[in-house]
Design brief:
By secondary structure, the chain is α+β, with helices and mostly antiparallel strands. Helix content is 34%, strand content 28%. It has five helices and ten strands. Strands 1-2-3-5 form a four-stranded antiparallel sheet, with helices on both faces. Strand 8 and strand 9 form a beta hairpin.
């Protein structure tokens, strides 16, 4: 079904849909690898809407649209850093993440980026590894006072 997904730039006003993707990806998928306390600290329902809106405008992600519904989003910054990469937890694997990653690669290469980096959740590390990313460092950052392990991963284009 991924062939029918459209990958395009985010548009202002889509922030609530992107929050739903973020929230469901963490609460329905990453919850298999993290505790309830870690999930709640990472993605509380009551995130400040203005801060979220500003964050989405700052990172200017690509979005995956399937049958008129946003089902995933990912960004890559001019320095090669991938800040957000999420596929909705309500959409089982169907190639959406792969389409987003291919767009990230193409965009980065066209911008002269030589290395991609990201802080990647335990859940997403196998996905990133399938695209050639390697673990540089295991990390234990605190979010809202709770340690949420992840890894710095990188890929040389």
């Amino acid at each position: 079904m991924s062939e029918s997904a459209l990958i395009r730039r985010y548009e202002p006003g889509e922030e609530p849909a992107l929050f739903d993707i973020y929230f469901t990806a963490i609460h329905l998928v990453a919850s298999h690898d993290y505790t309830a306390e870690q999930i709640q600290a990472w993605a509380p329902r009551d995130i400040d809407a203005a801060l979220w809106k500003n964050k989405m405008r700052e990172i200017n992600p690509f979005v995956a649209e399937l049958h008129g519904e946003l089902v995933g989003y990912a960004d890559v910054q001019s320095n090669g850093y991938i800040d957000h990469f999420f596929v909705s937890g309500t959409h089982p694997p169907r190639g959406i993440g792969s389409l987003l990653m291919k767009r990230i690669f193409a965009h980065a290469m066209s911008g002269g980026v030589r290395t991609l980096t990201s802080y990647v959740s335990l859940t997403a590390q196998p996905f990133f590894a399938r695209f050639g990313f390697i673990v540089v460092e295991q990390r234990s950052p605190e979010v809202r006072g709770v340690v949420i392990p992840n890894a710095l991963m990188s890929y040389d284009l």
